[in-house]
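ASSEMBLY PREDICTION REQUEST
Request ID: AP-0331
Submitted by: J.K., bench scientist
Number of chains: two
Total residues: 973
Priority: normal
Notes: Please return the full assembly, not individual chains.
Input sequences:
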Amino acid sequence: MVPTILVLSIVVFVIIQLPPGDWLTSYVAGMRAAGDEVSPERIDILRERYGFDQPMHVKYFKWITGIFRGDFGFSFSWNKPVGELIWSRMGLTLLVSISTLIFTWIVSFAIGLYSATHQYSIGDYLATFIGFIGLATPNFMLALILMYLSFEFFGYSISGLFSYEYANAPWSIAKLIDLLKHLWIPIIVSGTAGTAGLIRILRANLLDELGKPYVVTAKTKGVSNLKILFKYPVRIALIPFISTVGWTFASLISGSVITAIVLNLPTAGPMLLQALKTQDMYLAGSFIFFLSILTVIGTLVSDILLAIVDPRIRYK
Amino acid sequence: MKMRKSLILVMVLSLLIGLTGSGQASWYGLEGMYSDSAVLFSTPEEYEEETGNQVGNYNEAPILKEMVENGEIDTIKERLPKEPAVFLPAESIGNYGGTIKRTWAGPSDHWGLRKLIGERFVTGGPDGLIYPNVAKSWEIIDEGKAYIFHLREGMKWSDGAPVTADDAMFWWEINTDTDLEGPPHSTFRVGGETAKWEKLDDYSFKITFAEPNATFLEFLASEGRARLLAPKHYLKQYYPRYNSEEEVKKLVEEAGYDSWQQLFDFKFQWPDKNPDRPVITAWYSTNDPSSTYFELKRNPYYWKVDTEGNQLPYIDEMVHEIVTDPEMVVMRAISGEIDFQGRGFVFSDYPLLMENRDKGGYEVMALDTPDGGTTIYLNTTLQDDEVKRELFDNDKFRKALSLAVNREEINDMYSFGQGVVRQSAFPQASPFYDNEWAKAYAKFNIDQANKMLDELGLEKGEDGIREMSDSRDLTINLLDSDGMNVPVLELVKGYWDQIGVELLINTPERSLFETRLENGNYEALVWHFDSRDRPDIMAKGWSPDGNNRWAAPWGPQYSIWLQTDGEQGIEPPAGVKRMNEILKELPEVTDFEKRKELMAEVSKFHREQLYLIGLSGPVPAVFVYDENLGNVTEFPRGVFSRDVGLSFPQQIYYKNQ
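STATUS: Completed
Returned structure:
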């Protein structure tokens, strides 16, 4: 895992700096667009002050060693250490992603179970239909449609995670309720695609298991249907459920970046986009780095869970 | 256009122009265009002298009254300067209270806030004259060789500390500190020498130049970097000249910065960086700008009152929500969640905004934009392709290309017919507008264009594309930053197909575009003609400039030649050299007629040479405001005039509350 993260950090850092120019280029462009004069001397001073004149490996080394000391570099556009900017946003990103994961699990478990046990019923077709639509619709599109509907019928734009009254207030029950009022939208938006996939997996696995001889045997012995279902087939059908947590989590995080931009969530997404546009490299780099680490951790967690749930894995 | 003329205001205004000694000659050349706007008086005394009325007893907002009663701040009399500026609102005296909701895109959008609340040291009035603002008054010595400014005694920073001449001297100190800011702005180096500053007393200081600085007041009125005041009492703790090095080092380390300059950069900058920095603006920030909602609250020490003595501003609070997606900004507006904003909209949003006005409860203004228009620049100093360079450098070739652009159609298709159909030229709102230039080679005429190209010996090949003298196809490789202009360029490609010139459109990402622009490494590019309302002072795209690599995209190697004293680049021809002479001469020209003459020469040169091939004139800019807001006025747009700041947002108020 550690080598993966190290390699990741190098890739992240190099890719961010691949575009021509640097933050100063976009800064000067912005000043010029506003009719302000930036003298060549001033540009040289800034270049030196913020270390743009150093070669890439020096910058990388400074950044990566800083991270171990808890110093993530400097955000040029905010004139601030990156550490001061990212924590609340990373926290909310994690909150949205984990809530979405839980939502995905609960919904797809319930629907998958239902469609497998009621195969080819109207309910199964309906669930499958909705699931496929969810799978086929890009997240941002769904977000736009939801936004359009809410504007058309309720006359306000749904976005953000907090109302203005609560955004800058300290945490309280009322703020939590306000958060929950907003949170369901990004959860649904970024959760539907994953839900659809999991429903199909659970349904297919369960159908496989339900026809197996041990189920038939149990039935003939008079064990109740529900008991059979939960005692054996569901447990086995759950294995791919858990083994896919890793990539579900990864796609949730990367998907949430785009959703967050469209829905204007105070998570990593919008600030990351802005940082990339202005080539605010340490800010963008730290965001991508942490998102990558989350993904790596997600994979690790899914491996551990799998080993717990399925004893067979441990022998392989 | 809103036509709401108040007779009294017009009378007051004409009285003012007649009487005041401080008003300068034409600023934008907009005299009379905005006569229903507000009027600013330097002091209560001046207000009384000029109108015969008296400013009433000083009054303050209810939330400030409460703070006074709780003993949190001083009384209104102690907070205001001895002589506050007196402001006559555009429509009526307003009510206190309310919150203005806006959006911003984060630090890259800092001008959105600066233009809105920034205080100019002296200010342009909407009538085109220059008025006292932060400075109570000034004296001009020897036609601009020296300026003496008087500050307002008793004026305070937002933390209650007094504003004095020391703050101005401190501003100058940091702006000349080569360890910190580098050399000062070029306006302080008129005549080749850095200006000299001198403190006369606690509230006066003098700036002396080597040569007359003719446009210094105009420059100050345009804000930019020239605010002339910095809160010394707050900033000096971060500055090693005033604090011991260990102390500064400790502060730098605690805050997690690498050097004192980095920390100072942060502490100095407002409004988008340091919320704690004391300010003199009507609102000051109370939380971290990176919050989802960045809040600005009323400054209890603001130094302007209305004509009845009510301390401005009327609005209690401004809230900026970070919205990075432009479509979301429009969404916010149509659902009525934006109360006073022009940033973030483009003209193509206009129909959508108009359609949802009633639903969202807002009004939309379409404001004239002073701009030269979208322009194609051929690089006449192209390197490594002498055949093409010679062709681009031929004015006949450029004229033929210009004749083959159907501007009417472009305007109808992409600006809903609302744009101005003309050649790229100085904007109409500029005092240097030249109708002949605006019309030069702007009429669509394919036949004549073809004839001109035939005369240049460019014959069409079998594929219908003309061949250059070395029998290569005549192609023009054009850069369009981020593909912003592709729809229009596709039309142009179609027109130029008809004259046998192949247009290849490239859409590099913005920073790649900037880098190639800086290196002068392109055949052609499209950009607007950045000429603005005062092309003699700012945005001087009409001449190459040794101090500015980005000047004149039509001849980048000329700028490099001027910058390196002839060591690199290409030597400009005589006509272009003359442009640069005028550019250098202008700052010292005190006589406005002489200025006009010089700019007319520029105009003549460009309409004859046609280095700028205009595609579309400026389109109006969109501004959205809550229908319940009073005292909202139209304002001249453009960089030089500081945009929305000139509508004096301190006067807006909610009518029903």
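REVIEWER COMMENTS: Residues 40 and 98 of chain A are 48 Å apart (CA to CA).
SIGN-OFF: pending second reviewer
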